[in-house]
């Protein structure tokens, strides 16, 4: 399916979640020295809740995809925490290994000093229900995007992806990375000001405001001359590129079996 059509469904998914995972609404006051690791399934509504929190806290995370039928990271996760479900967080800074999305979110907020609201209690049902609804918009002919593993080649080094959770054009790229079981450093790129809202061409012409409103947006502005997502860097080949359609073709050609 064309990513422009995909984007419409992904916009509906973002609306269902009230656009959580868009802006830097609960910035973490502490930064982990060692990168956090998240054993993740892109389509999972519970994983989505954790990714939203990480985005709103402006924390990067190493994503280790665990799609259904996957063998690259699922067994590894279950050795670390027998019987685990996903998402599963590993924090090498504290030695913590844990699952259950609400507990992970509370842990992240407490450990890295964020005012992110807890999802325990009454709000939990609303969060899970709307996240499940958002996931239904990921259904396409052939199944849910980012759910089942595809045969793939293993990259020597993890890829790097600049994205924010609710981005309608980033979602297909994250889903493909999950299906191919390709590990990647998710460089969360939340919006930091009202002038960041809207498509890049419209936004930049209308507001003519500084683009580097959050740390990863500042990096994109300085190193690429513009700020939009997704932006993929592959240290294995030296490729760095924008545009979701181009990225999907690249991933299939380079790592698809």
Which descriptors would you attach to this protein?
single chain, 257 residues, alpha+beta, eight-stranded mixed beta sheet, two-stranded antiparallel sheet, 9 helices
Quick structural gist:
This protein has 257 residues and is an alpha+beta fold.
Give an overview of the whole structure:
- Helices cover 39% and strands 16% of the residues.
- The protein is an alpha+beta fold and 257 residues long.
- Strand 9 (231-234) and strand 10 form a beta hairpin.
Question: How much of the polypeptide forms β-strand, as a percent range?
Answer: 15-25%
* C-alpha termini separation: 20 Å
For this structure, the quaternary state is single chain
Look at the helices and sheets and give the structural class.
alpha+beta
Radius of gyration: 17 Å
Round the mean pLDDT to the nearest integer and report it: 92
User: What is the string of SSEs from the N terminus onward?
Assistant: HEHEHEEHHEEEHEHHEEH
Largest sheet: 8 strands, mixed
Estimated helix fraction: 25-40%
Order of strands across the main sheet: 4-3-1-2-8-7-9-10
Low-confidence runs? none
Shape: globular
Number of strands: 10
Count of DSSP H/I helices: 9
């Amino acid at each position: 399916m064309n990513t422009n059509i995909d984007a419409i469904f992904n916009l509906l998914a973002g609306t269902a979640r009230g656009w959580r995972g868009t802006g830097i609404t609960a910035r973490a006051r502490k930064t982990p020295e060692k990168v956090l690791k998240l054993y993740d399934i892109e389509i999972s509504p519970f994983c989505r809740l954790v990714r939203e929190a990480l985005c709103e806290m402006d924390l990067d995370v190493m994503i280790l995809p665990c799609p259904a039928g996957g063998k690259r990271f699922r067994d590894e996760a279950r050795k670390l925490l027998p019987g685990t479900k996903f998402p599963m967080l590993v924090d090498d800074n504290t030695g913590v290994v844990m699952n259950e999305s609400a507990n992970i979110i509370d842990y992240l907020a407490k450990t890295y000093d964020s005012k992110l609201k807890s999802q325990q209690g009454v709000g939990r049902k609303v969060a899970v229900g709307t996240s499940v609804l958002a996931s239904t918009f990921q259904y396409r002919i052939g199944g849910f995007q980012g759910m089942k593993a595809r045969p793939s080649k293993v990259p020597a080094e993890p890829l790097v992806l600049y994205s924010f959770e609710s981005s309608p054009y980033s979602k297909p790229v994250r889903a493909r990375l999950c299906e191919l079981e390709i590990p990647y450093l998710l460089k969360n790129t939340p919006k930091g000001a009202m002038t960041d809202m809207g498509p890049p061409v419209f936004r930049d012409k209308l507001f003519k405001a500084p683009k580097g409103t959050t740390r990863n947006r500042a990096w994109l502005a300085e190193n690429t001359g513009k700020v939009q997502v997704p932006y993929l860097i592959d240290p294995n080949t030296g490729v760095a590129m924008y545009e979701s359609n181009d990225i999907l073709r690249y991933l299939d050609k380079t790592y698809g079996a």
